[in-house]
Amino acid sequence: MRYPPLLTDLYELTMLAGYLEEGMAEKQAVFDLFFRRNPFEGGYAVFAGLEPALTYLEGLRFLPDELAYLQGLGIFKPRFIEFLREFRFRGKVTAPLEGTAVFANEPLLTVEGALAEAQFVETALLNIINFQTLVATKAARITHAAAGAPVMEFGLRRAHGPDGALSCARAACVGGVRSTSNVQAGMVYGLPVRGTHAHSWVQAFPNELASFRAYADAFPDSSILLVDTYDTLKSGVPNAITVARELQERGHELRGVRLDSGDLAFLSRESRRMFDEAGFPAVKIVASNELDEFVIDSIRDEGGRVDIYGVGTKLATCGGAGGGALGGVYKLVEVDGLPKLKVTSDIAKATLPGKKRVLRATAGDGGLIQDVICLHQDELHGGDTVYDPGNPLQHTTLPSPVELHELRRVVMDNGSRTGDPETLDIMAERSQRELTLLPQGCLRFINPHRYKVSISGRLNELRNRMIEQLRKGE
């Protein structure tokens, strides 16, 4: 899939033209991509979107019609258009693997290379990483609420356009939702496709039973019947039981029924009771209708008997408190080996200067303790003092002994991938595994435990020194 280079903000191009005019295009630069708050007011995020981002970077080039369009705008000089004709990304990217649990304020992507190249890719990288990380996190929250019951992605019709629907299906899989109703996503990403039928199918027939029989005749081994078009318990479920008996007599089985309205906890309990009493304990109860992690959690708390959840709008649009957008940013942190700092009156929003590493401290059993952001040349050990990036007066010491691991790796060098792409299944398994290693309370939906992300002493000193120099006008 090609990501067009014009899928960018105009100011990326005007800055690029300005760098060229000033002779700065080839200066070496380092940018960090990160977010400042965990999404959904939660305790973590699930990193996603790396492979599409690398695909964008590897294929970055301007086609003749794109250059002709830019020339026609009348704001760029011929020299700049010729510069774009040979423009490629030849830099380095450091990032976590997809499915990794990540947290606010720590660099996700670090992009190094010529200033022109590293600057220009800002918009596209934010577009890809922000949305897919947001969806993967929402999916992880939903699958956690489902407590082992499978979840299907049903968000195509409510997604933010065709590309948003494809990106949603992919990222949802990274977060643990490993099937989709989106047939195109099934083909592109190799995802299992799942679905039932609409209310209109039932309405198109003389009566509900006739519609169920027709669907079962067409799909005798894969029928899931939508039972709430008229009356779930008085009509839908009894008619589905009739069809289940007829299928059984012909050597087939009804796969399940879907509930799409009403009190899903109560209706699923009653549907389960009716099927069990009729001798069909294997028939699955599928629930849909504006589900999210909170609704699913309440269905389970109230004794609901749902086997499979179909989640659409709230997953595809990432609705809910703290959702809507991840808010990732892309900040310059070094030029020609000199650290750079963006500073505001709020130190919590000041960027962390210089080229950095992110170390993950883990216990002997693999449990996550905290993350530490440090300068690239730093060496950290158990017992070292580390600081809160938003409040330098707060500090703690790393436990001793402690195991420190690099959270990220070089995934692209000289504009080319350093390894083969992973499968979505591997990413989903990583996400599931990592979330089980979080400290107790991080997975709570309300007032989750705050996982510590600290900065090293040297990085804290560098930032404080640069802030003081800027205030003095040095």
Strand order of the largest sheet: 12-11-1-5-3-18-19
User: How many individual domains?
Assistant: 2
CATH class membership of the largest domain: Alpha Beta
Total strand segments: 20
Report helical residue fraction.
25-40%
The largest sheet, given as strand count, sense and whether it forms a barrel, is: 7 strands, antiparallel
Instruction: Figure out the total of helices.
Output: 16
Distance between the termini: 48 Å
* Parts with pLDDT < 50 across at least 5 consecutive residues: none
Which outline best applies?
A: globular
Category by helix and strand content: alpha+beta
Oligomer category: single chain
- Measured by DSSP, the beta-strand proportion falls in 15-25%
Taking all Cα atoms into account, the compactness measure Rg is 26 Å
- Assigned CATH superfamily of the largest domain: nicotinate phosphoribosyltransferase
Mean pLDDT: 96
Identify the CATH architecture of the largest domain.
Alpha-Beta Barrel
CATH fold field value of the largest domain? nicotinate phosphoribosyltransferase
Explain the overall architecture.
The chain is an alpha+beta fold. It is built from 16 helices and 20 strands. The chain has 2 domains: 10-135 and 323-472, Alpha-Beta Barrel (nicotinate phosphoribosyltransferase); 195-293, TIM Barrel. 38% of the residues lie in helices and 19% in strands. The strands form 4 sheets. The protein has a 7-stranded antiparallel β-sheet. The chain has a 6-stranded mixed β-sheet with strand order 16-15-20-14-13-17. β7 (224-226), α11 and β8 form a beta-alpha-beta unit. The model has no long low-confidence stretch (mean pLDDT 96).
